[in-house]
């Protein structure tokens, strides 16, 4: 049985519809990437799964066999879905350690503790009492990932980890993925960087204008197929 | 010696003003709500103490044991049942609703207690004082008020910086959507913030009622003092409100020493002066709390 399933998911902002029937499923332990250009609906999809946006039907989203489309974000995180939001969004008036502790607010237990996160990102331990705004973009991204891991999620949603970061920093951040997956966490990443997405995942969905245009294993997809699905040309 | 005495008395009154201001600062800090009914809740707490003292025959200070939990409950219910629905992008809505509340509370108190002035009696503390040297005397009541203010502010600081709830307050103030992603129920957090704000206000209200006479219409003036203290001290800074309170208290005391009718005026002038030279207050904190 799949861990996360969306059934013909429709969602949007007010009168503006952004998702036009997205059906995908993710098994426990998988790493799945969603690629697509700007405005394709990738972030909307993650915001809907995490509860910040309501889908049209509560049954459009199922997690671990039960519909979660009508739950509040704080209830969804308690069930084990954590999100690394687009733009990282650290809490500016909290220092690094307090930001991480906020991840522990929902009190789910599991492998991820402050110590474990500090082992994954030693830089965060060095700067634990620094204000989060004084961190570089890459460090803030590590903080955002660590904060999400502190909720001990079964499914980790990562929105545009590479956004605005230098290639070398992106590499450092993705280097943490094997460790995260080794703890049994299922990962769903949204990414514009296609190569990064193909490298990191077992399976890829391509989204265009709110619909899925391609699905497959990275090895089975040709560049032509991806280009067509990504740009629609 | 006369001036030193005046400054000390003013500074001690500043503790009360700081207590007036902390609730306002907390509600604005966490929810960006400006509670126009703030002063009326202070007066309402004083009347609540009158009722408790009347019913149980206890000392006004002992009545705090009832007044504070009741105001905590009222704060929680008020936020959950009413003010949460006014939150959003439009800051005018909570402003209008609390303005309405202010009118309702004033008239409700007028209906229940009439327009007569009341006072909470605490003779053993009101008249007691400690002599320092042969020219200075510090009243035990003003000193108690000041100590209570320091203790309450220190307790709030501890709550904000050393507990999960406080961390959630600060995170929600920064970015409530992101806080929800980590399990924070912001409706509950807001209700707790208002509950704590009203609890602190109720302590201020009872101490105020012991210090001076009150009637149902004096709430808005307390709101004005609270505003001035918050602006002088710096928005969102709790120790700043203590500094602001002391400055306002000293200014009023010095003004009154020149001419008894100048006390409020002197306070307003200092407030305007700070607004001119340090518009963000003396100890500003711009982000969150």
Can you put this structure into words, describing what you see?
Chain A is α/β, with parallel strands linked by helices. Helix content of chain A is 34%, strand content 25%. In chain A, β1 (4-13) and β2 (16-26) form a beta hairpin. In chain A, α3 packs parallel to α6 (137-149). The longest helix of chain A has 13 residues, at 137-149. Chain A starts with a strand and ends with a helix. With 289 residues, chain B is mainly α. Chain B has one domain (2-277): ABC transporter involved in vitamin B12 uptake, BtuC (Orthogonal Bundle), CATH 1.10.3470. Helix content of chain B is 74%, strand content 3%. Chain B has helices at 2-31, 38-56, 60-81, 92-113, 123-126, 140-162, 164-174, 176-181, 186-211, 219-233, 238-258, 263-277, and strands at residues 129-132, 136-139. Chain B has a two-stranded antiparallel sheet. Chains A and B meet through α2 and α3 of A and α7 and α8 of B.
Features:
heterodimer, A: 233 residues, alpha/beta, 6-stranded mixed β-sheet, 4-stranded antiparallel β-sheet, 10 strands, 34% helix, globular, B: 289 residues, mainly alpha, ABC transporter involved in vitamin B12 uptake, BtuC, two-stranded antiparallel ribbon, 12 helices, 2 strands
Topology:
The complex is a heterodimer of chains A (233) and B (289).
Chain A: E1 4-13, E2 16-26, E3 31-35, H1 42-50, E4 61-63, E5 66-67, H2 73-79, E6 81-84, H3 96-103, H4 114-120, H5 122-126, H6 137-149, E7 155-159, H7 167-174, H8 177-182, E8 186-191, H9 194-200, E9 203-208, E10 211-216, H10 223-231
Parallel strand pairs in A: 3-8, 3-9, 6-7, 7-8
Antiparallel strand pairs in A: 1-2, 1-4, 4-5, 9-10
Chain B: H1 2-31, H2 38-56, H3 60-81, H4 92-113, H5 123-126, E1 129-132, E2 136-139, H6 140-162, H7 164-174, H8 176-181, H9 186-211, H10 219-233, H11 238-258, H12 263-277
Antiparallel strand pairs in B: 1-2
Helix pairs in contact in B: 1-6, 1-9, 1-10, 1-11, 2-3, 2-4, 2-9, 2-10, 3-9, 6-7, 6-9, 7-9, 10-11, 10-12, 11-12
């Amino acid at each position: 049985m799949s861990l996360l399933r969306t059934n013909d998911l429709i969602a949007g902002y007010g009168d503006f519809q952004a998702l036009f029937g997205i059906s995908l499923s993710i098994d426990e332990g998988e790493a799945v990437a969603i690629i697509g250009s700007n405005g394709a609906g990738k972030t909307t999809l993650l915001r809907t799964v995490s509860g910040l946006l309501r889908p049209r039907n509560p049954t459009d989203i199922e997690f671990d066999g039960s519909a979660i489309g009508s739950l509040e974000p704080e209830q969804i995180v308690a069930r084990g879905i954590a999100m690394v939001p687009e733009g990282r969004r650290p809490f500016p008036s909290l220092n690094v350690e307090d930001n991480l502790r906020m991840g522990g607010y929902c009190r789910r237990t599991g492998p991820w503790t402050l110590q474990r996160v500090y082992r994954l990102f030693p830089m965060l331990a060095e700067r634990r009492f620094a204000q989060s705004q004084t961190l570089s973009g890459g460090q803030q991204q590590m903080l955002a990932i660590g904060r999400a891991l502190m909720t001990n999620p079964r499914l980790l949603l990562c929105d545009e980890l590479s956004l605005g970061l230098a290639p070398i920093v992106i590499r450092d951040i993705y280097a943490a993925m094997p460790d995260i997956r080794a703890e049994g966490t299922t990962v769903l990443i949204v990414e514009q960087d296609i190569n990064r997405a193909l490298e990191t995942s077992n399976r890829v969905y391509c989204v265009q204008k709110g619909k899925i245009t391609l699905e497959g294993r990275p090895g089975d997809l040709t560049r032509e197929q991806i280009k067509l699905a990504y740009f629609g040309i | 010696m006369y001036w030193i005495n005046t400054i000390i008395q003013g500074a001690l009154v500043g503790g009360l003003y700081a207590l007036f201001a902390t609730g306002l600062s907390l509600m604005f800090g966490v929810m960006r709500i400006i509670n126009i009914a703030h002063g009326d809740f202070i007066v309402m707490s004083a009347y609540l103490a009158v009722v408790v003292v009347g019913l149980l025959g206890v000392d006004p200070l002992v009545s705090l044991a009832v007044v504070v939990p009741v105001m905590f409950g009222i704060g929680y219910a008020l936020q959950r049942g009413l003010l949460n629905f006014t939150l959003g992008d439009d800051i005018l809505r909570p402003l209008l609703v609390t303005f309405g509340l202010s009118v309702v509370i004033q008239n409700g108190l007028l209906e229940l207690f009439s327009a007569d002035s009341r006072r909470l009696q605490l003779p053993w503390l009101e008249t007691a004082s400690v002599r320092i040297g042969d020219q200075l005397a510090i009243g035990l009541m003003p000193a108690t008020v000041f100590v209570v203010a320091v203790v309450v502010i220190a307790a709030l600081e501890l709550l904000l910086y050393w507990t999960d709830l406080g961390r959630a307050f600060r995170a929600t103030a920064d970015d409530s959507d992101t806080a929800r992603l980590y399990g924070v129920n912001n409706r509950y957090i807001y209700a707790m913030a208002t509950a704590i704000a009203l609890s602190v206000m109720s302590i201020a209200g009872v101490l105020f009622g012991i210090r001076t006479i009150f009637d149902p219409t004096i709430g808005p003036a307390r709101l004005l003092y609270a505003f001035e203290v918050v602006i002088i001290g710096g928005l969102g800074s709790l120790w700043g409100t203590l500094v602001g309170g002391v400055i306002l208290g000293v200014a009023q005391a010095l003004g009154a020493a020149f001419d008894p009718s100048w006390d409020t005026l002197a306070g307003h002038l200092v407030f305007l002066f700070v607004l001119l030279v340090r518009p963000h207050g003396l100890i500003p904190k711009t982000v969150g709390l």
